[in-house]
Amino acid sequence: MREATDEDCLKLYLLFKSVVEEQTAYPFSLPFSYADFLNFWNVPPPVWRYCSCLNGIIVGGYLLKPNFIGLGNHIANASFFVAKPYRKQGIGEAMGKHAIENARKLNFLAIQFNYVVSTNYPAINLWLKLGFKIVGTIPKAFRHPIFGCVDVYVMFRELI
């Protein structure tokens, strides 16, 4: 795991684009352009961006940021992605643990995920394993290409 640099953006875009194109985890419309990625990835500070590398190859990434501004900035938010060929190898779990530790070091009191698609079982199971709870359900908030409109979960984990 290492901090992402501007030089990593194109590679991260190509990985993230492949995840978006699956249309099962992120609600972005297709086609998903490099400009779309930069709007997602380059949110205003404070934000911390990381690459997950395997044998020197970027295989995923995540960003960590406050979930909201001002009086809500003590709760973190994060977005993760792992390229399909590298899934089921513990990379997502390593990024999740890394994000939890980073959020603690940055004095966040909790992490909240605002949009976890209910049919994304690998993600849900990982977050439950790492101590997150489903604290809310948004009915039929995601148009899944196979299952139609499915629920989205809000997941939350305290860090103290």
From TrEMBL:
CDD domains: NAT_SF
N-terminal signal peptide: none
Domain N-acetyltransferase: 1-160
Top-level taxon of the source organism: Bacteria
Alphabetized InterPro entries for the sequence: Acyl_CoA_acyltransferase, GNAT_dom, Mito_N-acetyltransferase
Name the UniProt record assigns to this protein: GNAT family acetyltransferase
Organism this protein belongs to: Methylacidiphilum kamchatkense Kam1
